[in-house]
Write a structure and sequence with these properties.
128 residues, 72% helix, mainly alpha, 2 domains, single chain
Length: 128
């Protein structure tokens, strides 16, 4: 409440003072409840994608991924499932997977070498 001269002297306020007091209280109440927020609204372009665009992008990305033979994915996936389920301890599953990869890798290398040597022998036979 705003003190007035009439209240200071102990007299009842006049109608004019009462009206002024109400007006002042309303102004103060309005000033206290207003909150001014300054916000920035930058213009950001939002791209629009059609389903065809999304499909083409997905195909472009998946074509660049290395492909794994289904047999390998099933084997290593099965090892992972067994390790997660607790049927195999994870170090054992890791050792089995690593050993299998080494053996299969050396076998693939030997197969390529055999195939190359076979092709070379065939070329020599054709020349002779």
């Amino acid at each position: 409440m705003i003190p007035t001269a009439a209240r200071a002297e102990g007299k009842p306020p006049t109608a004019e003072e009462e009206q002024r007091r109400k007006t002042d209280e309303q102004e103060y109440a309005e000033q206290d409840t207003l909150l001014y927020i300054h916000t920035a609204h930058p213009e950001v372009p939002v791209p629009y994608f059609t389903p065809g665009d999304l499909k083409a992008s997905a195909q472009a990305v998946t074509s660049r991924l290395p492909t794994a033979p289904t047999k390998d994915v099933l084997f290593y996936g099965g090892l992972g499932v067994l390790a997660v389920a607790g049927a195999l301890e994870w170090p054992i599953a890791l050792a089995i997977g690593g050993a299998t990869m080494v053996v299969r890798g050396s076998t693939k290398g030997e197969t390529k070498e055999r195939q190359e040597s076979y092709e070379e022998k065939e070329k020599e036979r054709e020349k002779a």
